[in-house]
Amino acid sequence: MTPPRTGKPPLVAAISNSIRSIPRGRVSTYGAIAKAAGYPRCARHVGRVLGQVQGLPWQRVLGSGGRISLRGESAMEQRFLLEAEGVRFKGKRVDMKRFEHHFRGGSRKAITRKVADEGRLCASKNRG
After folding, report:
1. Helical (H) or strand (E) element with 28
2. Sequential pLDDT tens for the chain (128 residues)
3. Which one of 3.40.50.620, 3.40.1280.10, 3.55.40.20, 1.10.10.10 gives the CATH number of domain 10-100?
4. The pTM is what?
5. Distance between CA atoms of residues 65 and 62, nearest Å
6. Taking a C-beta distance cutoff of 8 angstroms, is the pair 46, 52 a contact?
7. Using CA atoms, how far apart are residues 88 and 94, in angstroms rounded to an integer?
């Protein structure tokens, strides 16, 4: 018997939950969120989920090294929102040593299993 569908695919639900777990005044990267969700090769999907799911704290998600990966007014808005939460910058990057959120690690077996099950999904969707 299959469990009832919640409406969101498991990848979207896992990434959404990881993003929601980032507390106010902390940030994380696309790659760290994907890894915490159990899909370490699906960093690009984090951006897609941010565009699809309303109400996520999008401003707390950064590019590698703490850089704002958005452009123009969206980048200025993200910086403004982060500074309002108390996050400080070193030049154009967030001070990741002070403000990076560290996710609690899941079991390596669970992550390995998800990579085997979903890794092909990420790779195939990224090809276009």
Report:
1. strand 28-29
2. 555 555 678 999 999 999 999 999 999 999 999 999 999 999 999 999 999 999 999 999 999 999 999 999 999 999 999 999 999 999 999 999 999 999 986 544 444 445 445 555 665 555 55
3. 1.10.10.10
4. 0.79
5. 8
6. no
7. 6
